Structures are given as C-alpha cells and as structure tokens.
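Quarterly update from the structural biology core.
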Amino acid sequence: QLQLVESGGGLVQPGGSLRLSCAAAGFTLDYYVIGWFRQAPGKEREGVSCISRNSGYTNYADSVKGRFTISRDNAKNTVYLQMNSLKPEDTGIYYCAAAPPVFGRCMFAGYQYWGQGTQVTVSS
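Predicted structure, tokenized:
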C-alpha cells in the first residue's frame, strides 16, 4: 500500500522555525513530483511548495517565498519543508502529496497520493 507520512509539526512562537518531513512507505518517491499543502481552520487547502523529481524545479506560494525551502533526498525517500520566520497565519495542517512528473516542473494540481497531515501552530 502506498503511503506518505508527515512529521515535524508542532507549536512554535512567531519568528521560529520548523522542519517538516514527508516519508514514503511502499513506494519510492524519486519518480514523483512532491508537493506540500496546508489547510487553515475555516479555509480551503492551498498549495505551499512543490519540487520536481530531480530537484531542478521548485515552486512556492507567494506567502511563503523567502521563508520556506523545499528539498528532497531520494536516497532517504524523504522530502523536507524547512519553514523559517514563521507567522501566525502559517498555522494549519500541512500535507505532503505525490504526483506523476510533469515535464520537469511541478504544479499544485494532479496529486494522487496524500499523507494524513501534521499540525503546525504558530502562536505566542
């Protein structure tokens, strides 16, 4: 069974940092584009960042550019989201998802496999 598992969420003060991890079980991630999404209470899920198969292309939501960094280690079958300078509006459940490759790029659509999510709360 194909499964994605997120970890690394928690409670952090504004201005703090967290690193989320997305690990695959039952398949290898290196074939897939990987995206991070989040859903805040009362809001729709939104794309945060994505990364192409070979890490040559990344994309970020405007709200996180310059603060978040996505990376992948295919040897460890894991994708990371380093989140710095966190703000209260970054609070939400963060999900990772996998999609088939798209011409060496990535988008916030077409994802087939989803993790269960990890809670990130930014509050003083």
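The chain has a mean pLDDT of 95.
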